[in-house]
Design brief:
Layout: E1 4-15, E2 18-29, E3 33-37, H1 44-51, E4 59-64, E5 67-68, H2 74-80, E6 82-85, H3 97-104, H4 111-116, H5 123-133, H6 149-162, E7 167-171, H7 179-192, E8 197-201, H8 205-211, E9 214-219, E10 222-227, H9 229-234, H10 236-241
Parallel strand pairs: 3-8, 3-9, 6-7, 7-8
Antiparallel strand pairs: 1-2, 1-4, 4-5, 9-10
The chain binds adenosine-5'-diphosphate and magnesium ion.
Magnesium ion is lined by residues 44-45, 252.
Length: 252
């Protein structure tokens, strides 16, 4: 039986009385890859902010691996195993991908084993394994400022993985990428989903179609509906909330 890595109950977040999230209920199975979509202002970023401990619930609970996160700081939540990738890559441009990755490696966990379910290897093998996973072996020793936008995104995803999180939160990983790079990032996330639980926020419907099994639609701070991509795209409620907004081009 699969357990839920994340369980969100009746979550409300008020900013000066305005409910950015409103009685939101959500659960994610361990090992699941979930995509969250929703029009501007739906509460997507706030949703991630609450999971990482940056914003505290006004009402309701976030339960991660059975622990209520209410009393945990952002730092403690990260240490518990929640990793977040922001929209803009946060990498060291004056270092190479290899150097960037070795900086973030979690010395307490065996990433290679986490990634591929194998036994312990030396750090170099582990680093090499990760470089291969993010498809940057050939660029491993080039300064990061020479990388394309898509390569930087993959490097940052790699840096997140290097910390061995159990849950990866990824905010709009393909905004501004070419079709080819978008597909590569999609394949990387599918690959990582074999050994991680992942939540991706994304607007690009082509991309959502490529990676998504289950999609959650947020609207006005609550879950409007859930289902596979075809179900949600054809749901009259979803079509209504996206009226006047291009589903594939809305920004955050
Ligand atoms: P999304 O990412 O889906 O576009 P957000 O989570 O950024 O939506 O925002 C949801 C709503 O909450 C928006 O109306 C936004 O203006 C409001 N909001 C977000 N953060 C704050 C804040 N710190 N103070 C006041 N209002 C906020
Ligand atoms: Mg947002």
């Amino acid at each position: 039986m699969k357990s839920n890595i994340l369980e969100i109950q009746e979550l409300t977040v008020s900013f000066d009385g305005f409910k950015a999230l409103n009685k939101l209920n959500f659960s994610l199975e361990t090992g699941e890859l979930r995509v969250i979509i929703g029009p501007n202002g739906a509460g997507k970023t706030t949703f991630l902010d609450v999971i990482t401990g940056k914003v505290k619930p006004t009402i309701g609970n976030v339960i991660f691996k059975g622990k209520n996160l209410r009393t945990f700081s952002e730092h403690q939540v990260a240490r518990l195993g929640v990793g977040r990738k922001f929209q803009t890559p946060r990498i060291y441009l004056n270092l190479t991908p290899r150097e960037n990755l070795s900086l973030t490696f979690n010395p307490n966990k065996d990433v290679f084993a986490t990634l591929f379910g194998r036994t312990s290897r030396s750090e170099n093998t582990t680093l090499g394994g990760l470089l291969e996973t993010i498809d940057l072996i050939e660029k491993a020793d080039v300064l990061a400022n020479k990388l394309s936008h898509g390569e930087k995104q993959r490097l940052e995803i790699g840096m997140l993985v290097a910390q061995s999180p159990d849950l990866l939160l990824v905010d709009e990983p393909v905004a501004g990428l070419t079709d080819e790079e978008t597909e590569k990032v999609g394949n990387l996330l599918i690959n990582l989903a074999e050994s991680h639980s992942i939540i991706v926020i994304e607007h690009d419907m082509e991309f959502v179609r490529q990676i998504a099994r289950q999609v959650t639609v947020l609207h006005q701070g609550t879950v409007l509906c859930e289902g596979n991509i075809t179900e949600v795209q054809n749901d009259p409620r979803v079509i209504e909330v996206y009226l006047g907004q291009e589903m594939s081009t809305a920004d955050t």
